Amino acid sequence: MSLVNCVVYNRQTGRKQADIPLDQVSEALAENPDHFVWVGLHEPDAVEMRLVETEFGLHELAVEDATRTQHRSKIEAYDDTLFVVVRTARLESDEIRMGHTSVFIGPRYVLTVRQGASLSYAPVRMRCEKSPDMMRYGPAYILYTLLDFVVDNFYPVMEGLSDHLKAIEQDIFGSTFRRKTVRHLYDLKYELVGMKLAVAPMQDVCGYLLRSDTKVMPRALTPYLRDINDHVLRINDVVNAQSEMVKVAMDVNMAMVTVGQNDVVKRLAAWAAILAIPTMIASFYGMNFEVMPELKWQFGYPLVMGVMGGGSFLLWRRLKRAGWL
Fold first, then answer.
1. 256: closest CA among 192, 170, 165, 164?
2. To the nearest 10°, the Cα dihedral for 48, 52, 54, 58?
3. Which of 88, 139, 151, 163 matches a 20 to 30 Å C-alpha distance to 157?
4. Residue 325 above 70 pLDDT?
5. pLDDT tens across 223-257, in order?
6. Longest CA pairwise span in the chain (Å)
7. How many helices (H) and strands (E) does the chain have?
8. What share of the chain in percent tops pLDDT 70?
9. Residue 82 pLDDT exceeds 80
10. Cα dihedral 60→66→70→72 (10° resolution)
């Protein structure tokens, strides 16, 4: 069973009333008009989704979207129900695992459907139950708390990616080229693109909640929604900055590779120039000349060897000073 919890709350007191089975939601709501329920599901199957669709009278298109494994963040209105999808992220061993949560908000119910990687919403529930005054706003306050929790969880994910980038920088400025460094940079860029797709649409969600005049979202929560929107904008700026830094790191890495290759080419060219001196002199002795310096003079060979060694040494010293060796 994918049911995480099914709890009845009293809007007048803002306090929890009882845990109930999922198939008794309709009876609990009919018993007291001040009651509302919060149902949490984790990766439900088709049978469970049909059950909640019947219990809450959900729109079939929204239910279909909630069961998809991949979706972008969005918000839609179906009569007096709001359907919100938010992307979630969790950092595991320097790799981002993505998921999404679908939230159905009605005047008297909240239904959350978690798919993929995400943190437990137990802290959200505890936060709500510790604030009975705010829980009097009903499902709207729960929606705010959920969005705030999801958005704030992006911060540690981005901090983890920032630490990962700093570790990669050690390899970028290392003395040797590592192919895995390029791979790590590519993976990091890919993960940042995923974060961008998760964060950027949240601006539309917050904008809709701030501008729309619905029965579900009271105007008293507008300052809180503005705070979430501010966090989304800051996270989006962080994602853009990190993405730009990764791009710069990739360019710097390629530049360092080019510099390393140039150093190798310079060293090879320098040694080729040094070896060219004895090669040029020695090549004369392979020619069929009758008169050669060492044939009639006992110091011929030492002189030639000295010229080759001295010329090579002087050229080596000059190239050493120039930084080619």
1. 170
2. -130
3. 139
4. no
5. 888 999 999 999 888 888 888 888 877 777 777 76
6. 126
7. 11, 7
8. 79
9. yes
10. 90
Q: Are 206 and 232 in contact (CB under 8 A)?
A: yes
Q: How far is CA 281 from CA 110, 289, 291, in A?
A: 92, 14, 15
The dihedral region occupied by 73, where left means phi > 0, alpha psi between -120 and 50, and beta the remainder, is beta
The one-letter amino acid code at 241 reads: A
Reading across the β-sheet that carries 109-116, which strands appear in turn?
15-19, 3-10, 35-42, 109-116, 95-106, 81-92, 74-78
Position 155, amino acid: Y
How far is Cα 230 from Cα 227, in angstroms, rounded to an integer?
5
Q: Cα torsion at 14, 15, 19, 24 (round to 10°)?
A: -40
* Structural domains for the chain: 3-257 (3.30.460.20), 258-321 (1.20.58)
Summarised one tens digit per residue, pLDDT across range 5-39 is: 888 898 888 888 888 888 788 888 888 888 888 88
Q: How many residues does the chain have?
A: 325
The model's pTM: 0.74
- The token duo for 57 is 């009278």
In the chain the beta strands, taken as DSSP E runs, fall at 3-10, 15-19, 35-42, 74-78, 81-92, 95-106, 109-116
Please spell the DSSP secondary structure of 32-93, one letter per residue.
Answer: -TTEEEEEEEES--HHHHHHHHHHHT--HHHHHHHT-S----EEEEETTEEEEEEEEEEEET
Alpha carbons 151 and 124: distance in angstroms, whole number: 12
